[in-house]
Amino acid sequence: MRESKAEALADVTVYDFSGNPLTSTFPINERTSTEEASLDMSPAVVDNSIKGSVDGSVIREQRSLFSRSYDLLYGRLELRGQVVGLYSVGLPTNFIFNAGRDTQRNAMLLFGVGMAAVLGIGLYLTHQLTKPILRLVRTARMVASGDLTVRSGVITGDEIGILATSFDEMTARLQRQHLSTIRALTSAIDARDPYTMGHSVRVGQLAMMLGRELGMEDKRLARLEIGGYLHDIGKIGIRDAVLLKPGKLTPDERTIIEDHPKIGLAILQAVDLPPEVIEFVQDHHERLDGSGYPRGLRDDEVSIQARIAAVADMYDAVTSERPYRSPMTPGEAVDLLRSETGRFLDPRVVVAMSEVVDEWEERRKREPALRGFKLPDLDLPKVTV
Fold first, then answer.
1. Residue 145, burial from CB neighbour count under 10 angstroms (0-12, 13-18, 19+)
2. What pLDDT is recorded for position 378?
3. What is the predicted pLDDT for the residue at 379?
4. Which of 16, 12, 38 is nearest to 25 (CA)?
5. Of 330, 318, 358, whose CA–CA distance to 199 is shortest?
6. Which residues contact 85 (CB under 8 A, 6 or more apart)?
7. S-S: 287 plus which of 38, 87, 221, 344, CB 3.0-4.6 Å?
8. Would you state the pLDDT for residue 98?
9. DSSP helix/strand/coil, 263
C-alpha cells in the first residue's frame, strides 16, 4: 500500500466486514492521535457498503482525518465475483474543489481558444469572400471618377468573377469608344488643313510613348494621349485666312494664332477632364525660359505634361510637310530638339525622344492612323437657289 501511495493522488483503506481497517495508505505513525487515526467505519456505512445500493452506487462520506477534511467513497471489494472485504478511497476536499476549478478553468480556456479559432477562420473566409467585391467596388469608383484605364483584375470562377470580367470588358469598350470619339473630333479639326492631317493623333501617340520611356504609369499615359488629341482643339476658333495662310504671319496674325490654347481651354471647360489633360492643352507652347505662350511660364512652373507636349508637338511639326518648307529627317529633327535643350525644352524629354525615335518612325510608316487621311472628292449635285 505504501508503494501504491507514492504514485497515487488518493488514499485507499481496506476493511474487514466489521469495518475495521486492515491496511491503509493514510500517514499513520506513532505520533498520530487515536482520534485522528480513527479510520473505522460507522455501523451504518458498513451495512450500506456490504449490501450496496439498489443502483449499484457507492457510499460517500465526508470526514475530518489528520486535521484535514476528506471525501471518502466506500464500496465492496470483490475478487473473482466474491466479496472479500470493504474499501474506501479518500481525497482531500480542497483537492476536489481545486480540481473542479482547474477543470472549469481549462474548459473555459479550451472554449476561448475554440471560439478564437472559429472567429479567426470566419474572418479569414469573410476577407477572402469580400476582397474581390471590395476590389470591384474600388474599380467602379475610379471608373466613375473618369479613369477608364483601371481594371479590377478579379479572375474567379464564381458569380463575382463573371461580374468583374464583364465590368472590365465594359470599361475597356468605353475607353475605346471614348478615344475614338476624341480622335474623330480632332481629325475633323486637322482636316481643315491638308498639311496637318493626323497631327493631333500623332502628338497624342508620341506623347504617350515619351511618357512610357520616362516611366509613367498607365493612368498618366492615357491622359497624355487624350491631351495630345485635344491640344490643338482651340484652332477651331481661328479663321481660315489666318490658320491656312501659306506665307509668313503678321504680328497681329501671330497673336491670333497664339490664342488657340486659350480658346481650347475655354472649349474644354464644359467637359470634366483631368488636370493633366488641361495642362497639356493649355501649356503645350510654354517654354522653360519663359518665352512661351499663353502664360509665359518658366522652369518648374512648366508641368511634365507640358514639357512632353512641347517635344512631341515640335518633333511632329518639323518632320511634317508644310507649304513653305520640306520636312526634316528624324535625325535632323532630333538635332534641332537637342539644340533647344535647357532653354526651351526639358533635357530628359529630349533624351527620351532620341531613344524612341526609331521605333516611332517605324510605327508612323506602319500605322495608317499616324499618316493622317484625305477627304474623298465628292461629286455633289449643284443646287440652284
1. exposed
2. 42
3. 47
4. 12
5. 318
6. 14, 15, 16, 17, 22, 76, 77
7. 344
8. 66
9. helix
120 CB contacts (<8 Å, ≥6 apart)?
none
Specify the CATH number of the domain 2-98.
3.30.450.20
Cα distance between residue 188 and residue 130, in whole Å: 47
Residue 327: which residues within 8 A CB-CB, separation 6 or more?
Answer: 318, 319, 320, 321
C-alpha dist (Å) from residue 286 to 56, 241, 343, 344: 106, 25, 11, 8
Question: Given the C-alpha cell 493612368, which residue does it identify?
Answer: 219
Sole residue written with cell 488643313: 193
Burial class (CB in 10 A: 0-12, 13-18, 19+), 319: buried
Q: Say yes or no to pLDDT of 30 above 60.
A: no
Q: What's the pLDDT tens digit per position in 157-212?
A: 777 788 888 888 888 888 888 788 887 777 777 777 666 778 888 999 999 999 99
Place of cell 483503506: 13
Which CATH number is associated with domain 175-370? Answer: 1.10.3210.10
Q: What tens digit of pLDDT does each residue of 34-68 get?
A: 444 577 777 777 777 666 644 556 687 877 777 77
Kindly give, in sequence order, each residue whose CB lies less than 8 Å from that of residue 119, ignoring residues fewer than 6 positions away.
none
